[in-house]
Amino acid sequence: MPEQRWREVLGHEWEKHGTCAESILDEHSYFQTALNLKNQLNLLQTLQNAGIEPDGGYYSLSSIKEAIKEGTGYTPFIECNVDESRNSQLYQVYFCVDTSGSQLIECPVFPRGRCDSRIEFPAF
User: Fold this and answer.
1) Which terms under GO biological process does the entry name (predicted)?
2) pTM attached to this predicted model
C-alpha cells in the first residue's frame, strides 16, 4: 500500500476509534498501544492452537469464541462479513480495554452480531 494511502487509513482509524482516548493517548501512543496488544494476544496462534486455521474451512462461531477466551482470558466480539456465495466469514475480532487503553477488560455490552453459527475462516 502506498505511503499516502497508509496515512489516510491511519487518519481514518484515529478519527473513528482513537479520539475517544485523546485525553490519555496521543495518536502515536494509541497505535503503539494497539500494536502492543495485538502482539500480546497473538490471536492467530491462539486459534491455531485450538485447531482453527485460516484455510477456508468452516468452524462454529462458539468454538472460535471459546478458543479466543481460553487463550486470552477475555470474551471477544466476532464480526463477520458475507462473501459472494452468502457465506458468513470471520472478519474482525474485538476486545474492550480499560481507560488507559493498555489492559483488556470484559466488554460491558456487545453490538448485535451478524455471524451465522458456522463461519468460514478464509485463507489470507
Assistant:
1) RNA catabolic process
2) 0.84
